[in-house]
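Reminder: ligand-aware prediction takes two inputs, not one.
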Amino acid sequence: MTEHMHPDAIRTLFSQAMSDMYRTEVPQYGTLIDLVREVNADTLVADPALSAQLRAAGELDRLDVERHGAIRLGSAQELQAIRRMFAVMGMFPVGYYDLSVAGIPVHSTAFRPVDETSLKRNPFRVFTSLLRLDLIKDRTLVAEAEEILNQRQIVTDGAFALMDRAEANGGLTEAEAEEFVREALETFRWHSDATVSAETYEKLVAAHRLVADVVSFRGPHINHLTPRTLDIDAVQRAMPERGIDPKAVIEGPPRRAADILLRQTSFKALQEEVIFHGIPGTHLARFGEIEQRGVALTPKGRALYDLALAEVRAGKSGSYTERLEAGFAALPDNHDTMRRDALAFYRYRATGTAPASKADSLDALIDSGALVADPQVYEDFLPVSAAGIFQSNLGSDDQSSYRPAANKDAFETALGAQVSDEIALYAATEAKSLVIALETLGQSHL
Ligand code: OOG
Ligand code: NI
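Here is what comes back for the chain with nickel (II) ion:
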C-alpha cells in the first residue's frame, strides 16, 4: 500500500511555492505580504474579541496561508487541463462570473476547496478566466489568435504524466506530489519573451489588452496573488509609505462593524520589459491586491447588496465613501439581525453548556449562550469588484462594452464539467452545522 499525500497538503505545497515564485518575480508582492502580516497581528492585539471569535471558529490558523491568485486562459483545452491540475490539489470550479457586462471579454470561475475541513486547512483559490474570442469583432485577427493558441502547450509533459497517475491511482505519493508541484509551477511562471511579433502584439492590444495578455505568451502567468487582511483600510493607508501605489478606491462594501462579502484593492500593474521576436517592448501584466473577507450573504442579502452598490455607482452627490455608507444603510450592520433576517450564512456550534430543559426557540438557545452562530466566510468573488480590478490593471483606456452575454452553458462545455453553486455550499454547511449542534445540546426538536 502506498501512502498518498492529502490533496489539502499538496495545495499547501503549491500555494507556498507560488507565493515564493511571485515574491521573486514581483518584489512589491513580498512587501505587501509583510505589511499585511503586520497589520493582521496589530488588529488581533487591538481587538481581542475578534481574535477570540476567529480562534473559536477555527479560522485563525488559515489566515497566514490564505490568498488567492488569478490566471487567464485561451481555450477549452487549456481550461480542461487546468481543471485536472487543480483537482489533484483539491480545488474545484465554484461559481460562474460573466465579465462581458463590464466590457471585459472573459467569463470565469474560481477553483477552490469546497469542504469545510479543506477550507480551514488552506482556502487557496484561483480566479480563472477564459478568453471569449467570440466577442471580438475582427474575425481575421481571431483566426490568427486561435492559431497561435493552438500551438502552445501550457502544462508540461511531466505535469500531465502525474495528473494521469493521480487520476489512475486516486492520488500522489509525497515524492510524486513534490515533483507535481515543481512541474505545475512552470505553467504559471512569467516569460519575458513573447511568442508574437511586436506588430501582432499591437493588433492584439487594439482588439483588447486582455487578448494580448492571453495570446502573446507561452503560458498563463499568474497575474496577482492576494493575501487576506483583517483591516484593509489600514493596509491601503500604509501602502504609499512602503512605496506601493494603490488604486483610488476599495471595491465592494464599505467598512462595517459586521463585515460582509469581500472588500478589495490593488496596486497598479507593472510596466514590464518584454522581447517581441528580438525587439524590446513593454507589457502591463502583473499587479498586487489585498482583500478583506466577511460573511457570505444569502440570495436575499445579496439582492440588498447588489441594489445598494448599483445606487452608489449611479449616484453623483458626495464622495464615493459617503455614498457607500449611505447606500448600505439598508443592510443591518450586526450579525444578530443579519442572521435573524436570513440575510447571511452562519455556522452553528454548541458550547460546553448544555441547557437542562428543552428550549423553545433557536434564538433562546443563542441568548442562553449554549449555541453560537459564527459567520461563514465568503469564499468566492464579486463580478463588479473583479471588473474594477481588471480595469485598473489593464489601463483605464479599455472601456469598450460588449452586448451583455452571460453564457454559463458555453463555459461549462469548455470546462468539461459543471461549476458548483456557491449558495448551495453555504446553505448546506449552515444546515449541517445546525443539526449537529442541536444534537449535541439534546435540542433536536427545534
Ligand atoms: C482577475 C481579476 C479579478 C478578483 O480578485 O476579483 C480578481 C484578473 O485580472 O485576471 O482577481
Ligand atoms: Ni484578485
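The chain has one domain: 7-253+263-292+379-415. The pocket of nickel (II) ion (ligand 2) is lined by residues 68, 70, 127, 224, 226, 289, 389 (CB under 6 Å). We will return to this case in the review session.
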